[in-house]
Amino acid sequence: MPVFFQSRAGRQCLSVMALGVTLWIIGATLELDNRLVAFVGAFESYGADKLALALGIGGAMSFVYSVLRIMDLRREMELRAVTQTKADWTATHDHLTKLPNRYAFERKMLPRRTKTDDEGEQWERNVTIFSIDLDGFKKVNDLVGHNGGDALLIEVAKRICAIGNADCVYRFGGDEFVVVALGLSSRHEERFARLLIQAVTRPIHINGFAVEVGASVGYDRWLQDEEPLESAAHRADLAMYEAKSTGPNHHLIFEASMQDKVVKRASLESKLRAAIRNKAIRPFYQPLINLKSGNVCGFEALARWTDDDGVNIPPPVFIGIAEETGMITELFEDLLTQACNDALAWDEDVTLSFNVSPVQMEDKLLASRIFKVLAANGVPPHRLEIEITENALIQDPAVAALILDELHEAGVQIALDDFGTGYSSLAQLARYRFDKIKIDKRFVATCREDERQEKIVRAMLGLGDSLKIQTTAEGIEEHSQLVHLIQLGCDIGQGYLFGKAMPADETRSYLLNRTKALAGN
Ligand code: C2E
Ligand code: CA
Ligand code: CA
After folding, report:
1. Which residues of the chain are modeled with pLDDT < 50?
2. Among 101, 203, 242, 299, which residue has the fewest nearby CB atoms (within 10 Å)?
């Protein structure tokens, strides 16, 4: 049946036509035509013939008019159908890569688990979901601009689509893609994941640059008949995040432990939120010793958190969560306020060292936040030393330089933490003005036994000396290490040999005991 007659207008047209035919049949049966002719003849003198002619012409014109309106209506409906198709496409596709999007994925229908082929045999059809996330895409965007970034995404999309077995490729947003692959055995799934990484990581030429991005891939099989497709996509996502955490260009199949990890992490996150709200995280203080005089020249504040179950959560764990969830600023301001208060109990020449995480170095207001806390607690800026790692300078070097300049100008000292463990320690030294470098504890731990490490430590101390930057050796645990570092000319020492991080109320007695011990020598 033509589409028009399926519509409401078409159905009405059919009904009216049927009614007309019925009336005509009744009229013909009752010979109404003869009566009409007789009637017109009888009343001809009153103009009945003219009236009949006018009604006939009127009827014919109405018919022509109706046909024209019906044709209009048809055109309108066709136009609407085209617009609807376009709107559907827009809602279910990504404009840049022209790939279907997350919404299209949610509406995807896939064949059932088993099918009967021509020979009547049952065969299995595996459906595997691959989740792909690019590594280092932001850097590419910075290098070649947003248009360049768009070109890269289009090329990546093409390459993924070109891999066989990909039933459908989706862009879920940003630099995230999902592939639905059919008929892969376990061995082939692993190979497919490798192919995806190879395809994405091949250099891409954009604006004269050969740019490279990495890819992290997670995957899992869809449990057909048991769950919606999104559940498998969720597991593939978890596997992808796990792969990403192990470094770029890794692929992993989903494992149940990944789900446990996510649950644990979510619980830790809510505990951390409560702990920050209740000010349950406290700074402890580890002494920094001037190796020339033996005096305590400062304390490094190190965050400590014991949760409600009495478990000590390591700082890298909760600092990491605070960074990812944006809680770091609140935690930082809170800890710095506590530390400033505690530092007022120390002698004027004892500095407070405070760690600033890389995420904070992207915050243009960081310096003013610090000044506000210092002013509120009456601590002069020169008593504060900020410790940053190289990672903090890599994210957004321009903003980092701005923050460091502001802090320096106000008199706050800057120490480069974990020196020697990053990618470009020397480049950072050339670029920024540091007051101190802290040689990472890994060098200190091995420098006595390993000649090469010793030479590196010696070089780092020489570098500090020639750049007129003070050097701190971290992680001094043994007396022999201390003696060796003093011989090499290190300025400041820190480590369990002098003391672990202690609560604020123990710092006063530590200072007194240290002064007494020195006086006794
Ligand atoms: P970091 O800044 O390098 O701090 C030194 C770490 O080495 C501390 O671990 C300290 O307890 C440990 N340590 C000190 N002396 C020795 C030693 O002789 N031997 C050994 N084996 N270790 C020693 P902690 O407190 O677990 O902190 C780990 C990291 O967490 C810190 O490394 C720092 O990056 C971060 N962190 C701690 N507190 C904060 C904070 O308040 N804010 C930020 N952003 N990061 C913090
Ligand atoms: Ca530190
Ligand atoms: Ca360190």
Report:
1. 116-117, 119-123
2. 203
